[in-house]
Design a protein that fits this description.
alpha/beta; Rossmann fold; 2 domains; four-stranded antiparallel beta sheet; 11 helices; 14 strands; elongated; transport; ABC_transporter-like_ATP-bd
Length: about 300
Amino acid sequence: MDAILEIEGLTKVYAGGLKALDDVDLTIRKGEIFALLGPNGAGKTTLIGAVCGLVRPTSGSIRAFGHDLATDWREARRRIGLVPQELSTDMFEPVRRAVAYSRGLFGLAPDPARIEQILKSLSLWDKRDERIMALSGGMKRRVLIAKALAHEPDLLFLDEPTAGVDVELRKGMWAIIDEMRARGVTIILTTHYIEEAEEMADRVGVINRGEIVMVDEKAAMMARLGRTEAHIALGRPLTEIPPAIARFPVELEKDGTSLCYRGGDGTGKGKEEVAELTKALLAEGIDYIGIDIRDSSLEDIFVSLLGEEAVA
């Protein structure tokens, strides 16, 4: 798949000495949804700002659509949209006028039909003549998306797009993102709601302390780093684990009435091993009356990679 964004050796050191980005290499493919995950202060917003022209890198290069952003930024940035984390929009402007104005900032001719289409797709058409300040938090965030889409970008950054909105509106945002991908828009998403990345992303990158820790296909990452956990309710308590069972990664819980399996690390074969475990239990004459099995979520993997920093 063609690359539309290529970042090499990107570093940003602020005047006080803080290194926000440290030799970052990242390639984004055309048409994908890429989720960039990391704790607060990891460098996500700085990286987005560098691509969108809001932050001047200390060193490194950024190429978008074949254009070097250091020397040929105007053409590249015309094709890039940004939905910022903060609600930094003109609160006194009516919705339709604010969105149309954003289109004009990129030198595009007025297109009322296009603006109408965007507002309708975001369920904002009925609010088109209301001032932004009168809208709910979720609707204000939709206005930010509408403004970012007004100039028809090919690459869209969504920096915490569902922060501060309720569950229903978050699901609505997910549907909107799916529609944008269907239209061929490439999306880079940062989020604290890791289930969003698990639901939507094709690939996942993890950034911490300004460094890219890992980039991989979501499914491959979950298969390689995930694990399986199973809790097996026993028909009668055990005081110790028999040798034939001890070869599995298990331990007794709940005064010997439950056997807990944790394994499959890096293999993706945990469920197969659980099946072997249950056969071994029966072969040893150990009855079980129930089993609860689950695989790691992307959030589990994220926390295991970053430890306490992941929830800081």
